[in-house]
């Protein structure tokens, strides 16, 4: 009950600040650095002509500092930023911490986007990868690469 009250209070404040929920569970595709990206964004809010991307979290989520962001391995918000940018100007991205009913903004978005672009370019330059689709479709159920290989 306490969490729901805090969540509702936070939502009322966002509403007073003129933010409105524009999309929930929005499926989007785009191209970035020579790669096709696709994803489903939990929530996109709009205020005037600006978008705010929110990813709901009930558990832990990665937080990077100016000292640790170069070692980042989690780029979920950066992917969502790129996807949502196809809809308009994204002014912020963050995790919506449902346990504490607070929005935690991605503070190093631009820096992590540069790292992500570099990683993607490195991946696209790899030529010696021997990748073949498996014949056993059951193996694909939990495969983390099924989107990249195109198997439905």
Mind explaining what this structure looks like?
By secondary structure, this protein is α+β, with helices and mostly antiparallel strands. It has a single domain (2-127), classed as Trna Endonuclease, Chain: A, domain 1, CATH 3.40.1350. It contains four helices and five strands; from the N terminus they run H-E-E-E-H-E-E-H-H. It has helices at 2-16, 76-84, 109-124, 146-149, and strands at 20-32, 35-47, 50-57, 89-97, 102-105. The protein is globular.
Keywords:
4 helices; 31% strand; five-stranded mixed sheet; 152 residues; Trna Endonuclease, Chain: A, domain 1; alpha+beta
Please outline what is shown here.
This protein is α+β, with helices and mostly antiparallel strands and 152 residues long.
Instruction: Let me know the average pLDDT.
Output: 86
Taken together, the total number of domains comes to: 1
% residues in beta strands: 25-35%
Intertermini distance = 40 Å
- Count of individual helical segments: 4
- CATH topology call: Trna Endonuclease, Chain: A, domain 1
Written as H for each helix and E for each strand, in order along the chain, the element string is: HEEEHEEHH
Biggest sheet record: 5 strands, mixed
* Strand count: 5
CATH first level: Alpha Beta
Q: Which percent bin holds the helix content?
A: 25-40%
Low-confidence stretches: none
Radius of gyration: 18 Å
CATH architecture: 3-Layer(aba) Sandwich
Shape by Cα distribution: globular
Structural class: alpha+beta
Cross-sheet strand order for the largest sheet: 1-2-3-4-5
